[in-house]
Design brief:
The chain is mainly α. The protein has one domain: 434 Repressor (Amino-terminal Domain). The chain contains five helices and no strands. α2 packs across α3 and α2 packs across α4.
């Protein structure tokens, strides 16, 4: 799923993927003292939805760069969380199979 939110923030800022990567690298380096391995290709993967949940420091840096309140504002989501939610919701429409009962909290 394409991350239109992140792409929208980038385009509104008038920056290329490479420019965003350089700014994220600068922010992360200032915080950690290490040069991160981020480039325009990584930002492209985020926008294309290949990567949906960057590491904590990158998410924090993207929020700072784009003045976003939350990870969701930038279109970031943990794919496992989404898969689990879809499995949970599909259990309600299941045909009696209780294979997902273990996912549900006790009543």
């Amino acid at each position: 799923m394409i991350n239109v939110k992140l792409r929208g923030y980038r385009l509104a800022a008038g920056k290329t993927e490479t420019q965003v990567a350089a700014e994220i690298a600068r922010i992360v380096a200032a915080w950690t003292g290490r040069e991160p391995a981020i480039d325009g290709n990584y930002v492209s993967k985020l926008e294309r939805g290949v990567i949906t949940w960057p590491n904590y420091t990158y998410r924090k840096a993207f929020r700072k760069l784009f003045d976003a309140v939350s990870d969701a504002d930038l279109g970031f989501f943990a794919s496992r969380t989404r898969r689990d939610a879809e499995r949970w919701n599909s259990a309600d429409s299941d045909d009696g199979d209780d294979s997902l009962t273990a996912l549900r909290a006790p009543a």
